Amino acid sequence: MTLYRPSPAHIAAATRGADPACAFLHDLDALRRQAETLRRPLPPGVDFFYAVKANNDPRILQALAPHVSGFEVASAGEILRVREAVGPQARIVMGGPARTADDIRTLLAQGVERLHVESLHMLRLADAVAREVGTVLPVLLRVNLTGPVPGATLTMGGAATQFGIEQGAIPDAIAILRDCPALRFEGFHFHTVSNDRDAAGHAALCAAQLALARDWAATHGLDLRIVNLGGGWGVDYADPDWRFDTDAFARALFPLPDAAPRVQFECGRIVAAYHAAYLCEVVDLKRAHGRAFALLRGGTHHFRLPSSWGHDHPFVVLPRAAWPHPWPRPDITGERLTLAGELCTPKDILARDVRVERLRIGDRIGFLMAGAYGWDISHHDFLCHAHPQRLFFGAGPDGSAA
User: Fold this and answer.
1) Is 180 a catalytic residue?
2) Catalytic residue (choose from 180, 206, 344, 384)
3) In CATH, which superfamily holds the domain spanning 8-24+276-370+372-393?
4) What pTM, to 2 d.p., does this model score?
């Protein structure tokens, strides 16, 4: 698996006249290869959905559509985004808490395959809406395991979170479901952890969840067709060259072919993260109370991930020779500095106290692994700064740049 680093040609494409550069750059060809690489170790018949929440740009969805089983969405808006970008043929499954009657009407109208139900109330609401529409809605019951569940950056299950039906209440959910004529039980959904970097441990967790689903089906006489094991295949922002061992994960989870139930995954970060960069130009250098700062055109209003996760995001310095001013060009050489954005808040930090060999005003910073949970989770219009360019490189359907 490769890692996208901006080329001189891509950097040049992101420069608009004399304005400081600020852009998201995406390599769509590498993104397609990434999806194929992740799917390849999985046995035939295993579904690999792309989690749209990671990056919902239509060009990303269009690039991935031929290479994934379908799309996992968490809102009615994401359903419409997929339909507009990819068309009526795209497979869609829907999860997420806080569903409304309008959400359910939208998923029924748009041909979503099934709903991952997260509460007892949602079961009853989904049944009422499906009866109102005059159809039967396939559902999975999302489980919040008893836990604890170790090893991941984010935990949605095995702890007191707002996600899923707690494990002890699953028999109640099954009993309610039997009295919901407009719902059809198809299986269980487990999206317990996010960004698990332990392939063997994650395979063991998935195997335990699969066994639990089978036990429940046997105990309650259910026709278990599908077990969705969520995502959680990790990336390491501290080591951009590290990769989740998908081959070892697949070998451990699927030692022998097993046709029932059908297994599904819904991965986002590991699909989209590696093949985009966030490019920012250095517009000032300064010192305050013994610390050095590089101020960037851009910041967390475009790329909130480093702030939300509290990490120093990986980056490369991209030197620029041009200096248009008559005064000496400020620089910082061989010391530590903080990469800060243009917002009026001390929290607008993308990397703190990181060492650089040399950095000058006018150089560019390329933040790597910027394709997932960057622009999509950011507060774009705080202070009304200009939005970054969003450039997509790679052959489109007609062979041109996308």
Assistant:
1) no
2) 344
3) Lyase, Ornithine Decarboxylase; Chain A, domain 1 (2.40.37.10)
4) 0.93
